[in-house]
Design brief:
8 strands, 60s Ribosomal Protein L30, Chain: A, 2 domains, 465 residues, 2-methylcitrate dehydratase PrpD, alpha+beta, disordered N terminus
C-alpha cells in the first residue's frame, strides 16, 4: 500500500465530522466527574445483564455460540459467565451478550428498545478483565458507551426501524466507546473507533423479531464494537465523516433530528433518563401494556370466563404486535396479545410466563382471541413510540368496562429504578444457571460494591462454574 492510499482519510469530504465531536466529549468526560446516579444505574444494568445471561445460558442459541467460541479458543483474557472457560475478550463479550439477549430479560432503552446495557456491560467486563482493571473504570465506561449509543439511536428512531434495521446498528457504538474508554484511546483514536463501529454491523429487524437472529445481533454488536476500539488503538483508520457525510451512516439509516446528537452533551445522561430494567421477560414495548391489563383485571376482580373483549390502545401497536398464538420464547416475547391475555388471566406478567407451560395454559389461550388492537388510538406526543405505554380496557359480557393506563413500566427511568427490584430479579434468574446459592449471594454483594473492586475478575470469579 502506498503513502497516498494510507492517508486517504485525510482527504475525506468536508463535513461536521460528528464522530470527532463525540470522541472529544467521551475522552474529556472520561477524566472528569460523572453523576453518582449514572454510575449507580450502570451497576444496575450490569446486574440485570448478568441475571438475564443466567436465564439464557442454556438456550440453544447461547449454547451454540459458546461452543463455537470455546472450540476456537485463544488467549484466556476474560471469563465466560456461568462456565469455567476463559476466552479472548472479544469472544467472551460475544458469548455473554448472546446469553443475556437470548433470554429476552435484559434491559432496554425506552426510546427504541435497543439493548444498550447488554452491550456496554459485556464489553466493559471483558476488556477490564483483559487489562486487569477495577470496578469504577467499568462503570464510567458503561455510562459513556450508553450515552453515545443512546444519542445516535435516538436520531435513528423510528427511521432505522422503518428501513428495517435492528437496534444492533446503534448498540455497537456503546461497545466501541466503552471499550475505547477502558483502552484509554485519545480523541483521534476514539474518532476512528466510532467511525469503524458505524461501518461494522448490520442487522435486520424482521429476523430479530422472529428468530435467534436477535441474540446473534447482540453478540456481533459486542464483539465488533470491542474490535473497533482495539483496531483504533493500533492505528487503524476509517472515514471520520462516516456518520454525517452524504450517503453516510445517518443518511443510510434514515436519521432524524441529527443535530440533537451532539446537543448539550453532558447536561443529562441517557442511562439515567431512558434506561429501563426488565422486571418481567419479553419485549419491553409490551411491559406497560401488561401492567395496565393486570391493573384493570384487579380493579374489576375480573374472571377470564366473564371477558368479552380486551382492547389495547397504543399508537405503537398498530404496526407492532407480534404473533397472536405464540408457542415458544421468541413468539411470546414479541406478542402483545399474549402479554395482555396472560396479565388478565394471572393478574400480572411474570418470569414464568415465558415458559411453554404458561403459553399452553388453557385459561390464557381462551383469552387470546378476545384481545383486540384499538384502530384509532390517541396520537403519540413525539416520535418515540415505546416511551408512552398505553391503555387497556376489559369489556365484560355483562357490559361493564374496566380500564387502566400505564405510561411507563416498573423498573424504568420515568418511574425510578430500585435496587430491591434488581435484587429480586437477580435472585430469581441467576439460579437458572446452576450457580450455587452462596455464589449467587456473593456475586450480588460484589455488584452492590462494584465500584470498590480493585479488579473486576473478583466478580467474574463468583460467576464461574
Amino acid at each position: 500500500m502506498n503513502e497516498q492510499q494510507q492517508d486517504r482519510t485525510a482527504d475525506a469530504p468536508a463535513g461536521t465530522r460528528l464522530a470527532e465531536t463525540l470522541a472529544a466529549f467521551v475522552v474529556r468526560a472520561a477524566h472528569g466527574e460523572l453523576p453518582p446516579l449514572a454510575l449507580e444505574r450502570a451497576k444496575m444494568s450490569l446486574a440485570s445483564t448478568i441475571a438475564s445471561a443466567a436465564a439464557g445460558v442454556s438456550i440453544p442459541s447461547a449454547r451454540i455460540t459458546r461452543e463455537m467460541e470455546i472450540e476456537e479458543g485463544g488467549a484466556p483474557e476474560a471469563a465466560v459467565w456461568f462456565s469455567s472457560a476463559r476466552l479472548p475478550a472479544r469472544s467472551a463479550a460475544r458469548v455473554n451478550a448472546v446469553a443475556s439477549d437470548a433470554a429476552a430479560s435484559d434491559d432496554s432503552d425506552l426510546r427504541s428498545i435497543a439493548h444498550i446495557g447488554t452491550i456496554v456491560s459485556t464489553t466493559s467486563m471483558a476488556v477490564a478483565q483483559k487489562l486487569g482493571l477495577g470496578g469504577m473504570p467499568v462503570l464510567r465506561a458503561m455510562v459513556l458507551g450508553y450515552e453515545i449509543a443512546g444519542r445516535i439511536d435516538e436520531a435513528l428512531t423510528p427511521g432505522r426501524m422503518q428501513r428495517g434495521f435492528h437496534g444492533s446498528v446503534s448498540t455497537v457504538f456503546g461497545g466501541a466507546v466503552a471499550a475505547g474508554t477502558l483502552l484509554a484511546l485519545d480523541e483521534a483514536q476514539m474518532t476512528q473507533a466510532i467511525a469503524l463501529a458505524a461501518t461494522s454491523i448490520g442487522g435486520l429487524a424482521i429476523a430479530a423479531d422472529t428468530s435467534w437472529a436477535r441474540e446473534y445481533h447482540a453478540g456481533l454488536s459486542a464483539m465488533l464494537g470491542l474490535q473497533a476500539a482495539l483496531a483504533a488503538k493500533r492505528g487503524f483508520r476509517a472515514e471520520p465523516a462516516v456518520l454525517d457525510a452524504p450517503r453516510g451512516f445517518l443518511s443510510a439509516m434514515n436519521g432524524q433530528a441529527v443535530e440533537d446528537i451532539a446537543c448539550d452533551l453532558g447536561a443529562s445522561w441517557d442511562i439515567v433518563t431512558d434506561m429501563a430494567i426488565k422486571l418481567m421477560p419479553g419485549g419491553h414495548p409490551y411491559h406497560a401494556i401488561a401492567e395496565a391489563a393486570a391493573n384493570a383485571a384487579i380493579a374489576g376482580d375480573v374472571a377470564a370466563e366473564d371477558v368479552d373483549r380486551i382492547i389495547l390502545s397504543a399508537a405503537q401497536l398498530l404496526n407492532l404486535h407480534g404473533p397472536t398464538h405464540p408457542t415458544d420464547l421468541i413468539g411470546a416475547a414479541h406478542s402483545v396479545i399474549y402479554f395482555a391475555a396472560a396479565a388478565v388471566a394471572d393478574r400480572g406478567f411474570r418470569w414464568e410466563h415465558i415458559e411453554p407451560a404458561k403459553m399452553a395454559d388453557p385459561v390464557i389461550r381462551s383469552l387470546l382471541d378476545r384481545v383486540a388492537i384499538d384502530p384509532n388510538p390517541a396520537p403519540l406526543p413525539d416520535r418515540f413510540p415505546h416511551r408512552h405505554g398505553g391503555t387497556v380496557t376489559i369489556v365484560l359480557k355483562d357490559g361493564r368496562r374496566f380500564s387502566h393506563t400505564c405510561r411507563a413500566p416498573r423498573g424504568s427511568s420515568p418511574r425510578g429504578v430500585e435496587w430491591s427490584d434488581v435484587d429480586a430479579k437477580y435472585r430469581h434468574l441467576v439460579p437458572m444457571s446452576g450457580l450455587a446459592p452462596q455464589a449467587i449471594e456473593a456475586s450480588l454483594a460484589s455488584l452492590h460494591a462494584f465500584e470498590t473492586l480493585n479488579e473486576v475478575s473478583e466478580l467474574a470469579h463468583f460467576l464461574a462454574r
